[in-house]
Write a structure and sequence with these properties.
Number of domains: 1
Pfam families: MT-A70
Largest sheet: 12 strands, mixed
CATH superfamily: Vaccinia Virus protein VP39
CATH class: Alpha Beta
Radius of gyration: 22 Å
InterPro entries: DNA_methylase_N6_adenine_CS (IPR002052), MT-A70-like (IPR007757), SAM-dependent_MTases_sf (IPR029063)
Distance between the termini: 29 Å
Protein name: Methyltransferase 4, N6-adenosine
Strand content: 15-25%
Family: Belongs to the MT-A70-like family.
CATH topology: Rossmann fold
Organism: Mastacembelus armatus (zig-zag eel)
Length: 419
């Protein structure tokens, strides 16, 4: 069960189960030979067993034992804070009770169902080695000449030929589709990746996004996780960030269907939140309708950072909006209301920037048959189109456990389904 709890505060989700639901049927291709495998994301990647503050930061609250109190570190005086820090402090105080009360409700409910029981559920397997060369490949692809619109050839291709061959797949200038009813373990660029069923992706840089536009689809849901600038990213050089002037160039009006739900992950810097609300969304014709929060808890239900830490918060912001094209005069009476200040609570991945899937949480607001797109994606989802320069990052087989599906009945059923 991926959505474990749903109530008036939001949802508690099992992020690993959200991933696994796309791999119930999986075929591994090696050359032109196929075998049936059981495929699951490595659960130890979500075994965050305790919060990242000091033990002295822990402070129980009435009726709950999962929260953390303020840090013992001497706080700076008010006049020592810069304007950005003052704005963040004010914002935190506005939403603090929403985060605290909603998280308590969802965590308590999850624990009553047997979740978030702590370290006794921890797995001891080593974490997969994290290295991704896809961004470097996209840098190389920048050297390829841009194709003029009138010269654009077929912009979509199938992942697999009839014999299972993937040697001629062009990952950089065409959208690649897996149209099969099963996920496929295939070799791309000399590495093995797991591609979900009915998924599509384009591995490209911001400057090579034209194939996605020429793909010709209008999407009912667009989720994006832009590479926001921050100090830790600058120090680690983990990825290149994009300023707002470049983010404005995202072709949202060319990709969004009327009333498309647009969801943007935002860091806790108020300047980034204002950028989305006051610059990006108005520029694209998107109306802000709600603000949600992703709350990160450990496997025992504690916030992963002290709630009142002046440095890192245990939550991130999502800004939700609806695309309103100027020419659209359609009625909005059938549009599902999106509630404000909802929480998505989950145990986070140990890997930087791996966000939980929003597919199940957002389905009631866009419909089960909605066409969905993720921008700046680092993984794929069934029945979604994904774009980014690391779009296959968490699809590498090193993140999955693959075992032979040697049950004759299971294989017979899959064979029957493929014919």
């Amino acid at each position: 069960m991926s959505v474990v709890v749903q109530n008036s505060h939001g949802w508690f989700v099992d992020s690993c189960s959200l991933i696994d639901q796309g791999y119930s049927r999986c075929i591994r291709w090696r050359g032109n030979k196929k075998s049936h495998v059981k495929c699951g994301f490595q659960r130890q990647c979500f075994q965050v067993q305790k919060h990242f503050g000091n033990d002295s930061d822990k402070a129980p609250v009435a009726g709950g034992r999962y929260t953390c109190g303020p840090s013992k570190k001497r706080p700076r005086k008010q006049n020592e804070l810069n304007q950005g820090e003052i704005d963040s402090q004010v914002f935190h105080e506005m939403i603090r009770s929403v985060i605290l009360e909603g998280t308590k409700s969802l965590v308590d409910s999850a624990q009553s169902l047997g979740y978030l029981k702590g370290e006794k559920d921890a797995l001891k397997e080593p974490l997969p080695f994290q290295e991704c060369n896809l961004a470097a490949l996209c840098e190389m692809a920048k050297e390829l000449p841009l194709v003029a619109d009138e010269e654009q050839e077929e912009c979509v291709q199938f992942l697999l030929a009839k014999d299972g061959c993937t040697s001629h797949v062009d990952l950089f200038s065409r959208v690649t589709e897996n149209r099969e009813d099963w996920s496929a373990v295939v070799t791309l660029m000399g590495e093995e990746y797991v591609i979900p069923q009915h998924s599509a992706f384009l591995l490209s840089d911001f400057k090579q996004i034209q194939p996605l536009i020429h793909y010709g689809r209008k999407f009912d849901l667009i989720v994006m996780d832009p590479p926001w600038q921050n100090k830790s990213v600058k120090r680690s050089r983990r990825y290149d960030f994009l300023p707002s002037s470049q983010l404005k160039g995202l072709p949202i009006p060319l990709l969004a269907a009327p009333n498309c739900l647009v969801v943007t992950w935002v860091t806790n810097r108020c300047s980034h939140q204002r950028c989305v609300r006051d610059e990006l969304y108005p520029h694209w014709g998107v109306e802000v309708i709600a603000e949600w929060f992703w709350v990160k808890v450990s496997t025992s239900g504690q916030f992963v950072f002290p709630l009142d830490s002046p440095h890192k918060k245990p939550y991130e912001v999502l800004v939700l909006g609806r695309y309103r094209p100027p020419s659209d005069t359609s009625k909005r009476s059938s549009e599902v209301l999106v509630e404000d200040h909802r929480l998505i609570v989950s145990t986070p991945s140990v890997f930087h920037s791996q966000k939980p899937s929003l597919s199940e949480v957002l389905k009631p607001y866009v419909g089960a048959e909605a066409k969905c797109l993720e921008l700046f994606a680092r993984s794929l989802q069934p029945r979604w189109t994904s774009w980014g320069n690391e779009v296959l990052k968490f699809q590498h087989t090193r993140y999955f456990t693959l075992t032979a599906a040697d049950d004759p009945e299971d294989i017979a059923k899959e064979e029957e389904g493929t014919n």
